[in-house]
Design goal:
There is one protein chain. The protein is of the alpha/beta class. Helices cover 44% and strands 12% of the residues. It has three domains: 11-186, Rossmann fold, CATH 3.40.50.720; 196-295, N-(1-d-carboxylethyl)-l-norvaline Dehydrogenase, domain 2 (Orthogonal Bundle); 310-401, D-Maltodextrin-Binding Protein, domain 2 (3-Layer(aba) Sandwich), CATH 3.40.190. It has helices spanning 19-30, 42-61, 67-75, 100-113, 129-133, 167-179, 195-211, 217-227, 234-241, 243-256, 267-274, 315-323, 349-355, 386-396, 414-431, 436-447, 453-460, 462-476, 485-493; strands spanning 11-15, 34-38, 77-79, 91-94, 119-122, 142-147, 156-161, 183-186, 288-290, 293-295, 310-312, 339-342, 363-366, 376-380, 403-405. The strands form three sheets. Strands 3-2-1-4-5-6-7-8 form an eight-stranded mixed sheet, with helices on both faces. The chain has a five-stranded mixed sheet with strand order 11-12-13-14-15, sandwiched between helices. The protein starts with 10 loop residues before the first strand and ends in an 8-residue tail after the last helix.
């Protein structure tokens, strides 16, 4: 394939004028390419053209483009009367819904229309290039070019090819991504590519936690925002994306990876999708919405600390209790009336309390993995006294840091979700899904995480992440928590998760 991504007269075709198609059209026309936009619904194409024109005007107002540049870009977009109008294109991007049969039909139609040296790329986010190219006469010119929504604001593009894709096609699409102002990352042709695979660790694990009744949607979101530093909670994110997008993609990735248990969908998401609780666009999802804004009440006020003494199992908790003005029990074993605070790493509160021979009625676990300055998570057992829980809650909230109380479970909330993300990043490194240096870069760019999965694991401590996974795996018996060999080996040798084999 002899595609010159920098030729001045490059013609870009786009099939599908939804959010992704119109976004690709915008960055392509701004880069100087002529764009031919086709959608089976001409009204959709017309709306896409109006929307893109408005975005170009807005870019001019904000100074990102001059008025002349915006006008010139607008003039380079044309709406096709039919798919036959894409015949002169040098490259065509397919951006329709995630339906394999429909995508295959589009590619077969395109092959009848465009020249033999035209590159045809799919914007799929959960299917493989190979599965789409399987019906093509010239699979060597078929590749994946996965942009992120909203395209004009998201710099990342994942570029993938099947075993049949010509290397020159991959190189040309990488360069075309740069011409469009994106940062391309070469990824393997696996279901979900890189970013969407790792992103499952955030939303799927949160759904499994909620499905098990360990914490509510809002509490999980608060913990992941305030304690772990994510810009949005997982349920806020799914409401924004739409459950009819997130859950089917999860199912496709699960099936496309040979039913890898790490991608096992949550029954909770299936049920809520069937109930029409799709998120913001439906007015109801994990939250209720009114005029596009979430309707939620404030957290209930914290109870008061009653002044009783507190015995702790770690120096970190000693400093916390003393800084909060609590009465610290400094004996080797807790006094008969003292509150007991423990800090398990991966284990349940019940197991930690039992192993230590502690009184379950007076014992509460606290998550310390992410520090104690953003939000504090308490985990009592069913045997814990309500008065004890209230007293601990009151003490730990006395400096204004919010506190969330969850049901006893292995791994708390933030450590368990973070460990899944790190483990998926390690799996990607192990499988060679992308270059080591690109894994963290792509995830932070594509998902907005505070760190990429490998950097996240290094910051928390690979040995701590391994302990969380191993403990949850042992106590649940669920194979989705099986630590990767990549993680195990790097803990064994005491090196960074970014250390190559």
């Amino acid at each position: 394939m002899a595609l010159d991504p920098y030729r001045n007269d490059l013609i870009v075709g786009i099939v599908g004028a939804g959010a992704m198609g119109r976004g690709i059209a915008q960055v392509a026309c701004v880069s100087g390419c002529r764009v031919i936009l086709h959608d089976a619904n001409l009204d959709t194409s017309a709306r896409a053209l109006d929307f893109t024109s408005e975005m170009l005007d807005r870019a001019a107002v904000k100074g990102r483009l001059s008025n002349a540049e915006a006008d010139a870009a607008r003039d380079r977009i044309n709406v096709a009367d039919g798919i036959d109008s894409l015949a002169p294109c040098h490259v065509v991007f397919e951006a329709i819904i995630e339906d394999l049969a429909l995508k295959q039909a589009v590619f077969q139609d395109l092959e009848k229309i465009v020249a033999d040296d035209t590159v045809i790329a799919t914007n799929t986010s959960s299917l493989t290039v190979a599965s789409i190219a399987a019906v093509c006469k010239m699979p060597e010119r078929v590749a994946g070019c996965h942009f992120f929504n909203p395209v004009p604001l998201m710099d990342l593009v994942e570029v993938a090819g099947s075993e049949s894709t010509a290397p020159a096609v991959i190189s040309a699409l990488m360069e075309l991504g740069r011409r469009f102002g994106r940062q391309p990352v070469r990824v393997a042709d696996v279901s979900g590519f890189l970013v969407n695979q790792i992103g499952r660790g955030y939303v799927i694990e949160a759904a499994h936690l909620a499905d098990a009744g360990i914490a509510g949607f809002a509490d999980i979101d608060r913990i992941m925002r305030d304690a772990a530093g994510f810009p949005m909670g997982p349920f806020e994110l799914m409401d924004l994306t739409g459950l009819d997008v997130t859950h089917p993609a999860t199912e496709r990735i699960f099936e496309g990876t040979g039913r890898d248990p790490r991608f096992r969908p949550s029954p909770l998401l299936q049920q809520r999708m069937e109930d029409g609780l799709l998120g913001r666009k439906a007015g109801a999802g994990f939250y209720q919405y009114q005029d596009g804004s979430v309707v939620t009440g404030p957290e209930p006020p914290a109870p008061n600390y009653d002044g009783r003494s507190v015995w702790v199992d770690s120096d970190r908790l000693t400093d916390l209790v003393e800084n909060l003005g609590g009465s610290l029990d400094k004996d080797a074993k807790p006094g008969n009336e003292s509150i007991i605070l423990v800090s398990p790493l991966g284990g349940t509160a019940a197991k930690t309390i039992s192993d230590g021979g502690l009184d379950p009625a007076r014992s509460v676990a606290i998550d310390t993995l992410f520090g104690l300055s953003g939000r504090r998570t308490l985990m009592p057992t069913p045997a814990a006294s309500r008065d004890i829980i209230a007293a601990v809650h009151g003490l730990l909230a006395s400096d204004g840091v919010p506190v969330t109380v969850i049901t006893d479970s292995p791994g708390f909330i933030a450590p368990r979700i973070a460990a899944m993300i790190v483990n998926l990043g390690c799996a990607a490194a192990e499988a060679g899904t992308a270059e080591l240096g690109d894994i963290d870069r792509a995830v932070t760019m594509g998902l907005g995480y505070p760190r990429g999965p490998l950097a996240f694991g290094d910051a928390l401590g690979p040995d701590r992440v391994l302990k969380v996974l191993a403990a949850v795996h042992e106590q649940t018996g669920d194979s989705r928590y099986q630590p990767t060999q990549w993680l195990v080996d790097r803990v064994k040798y005491g090196v960074s998760l970014t250390t190559p084999d």
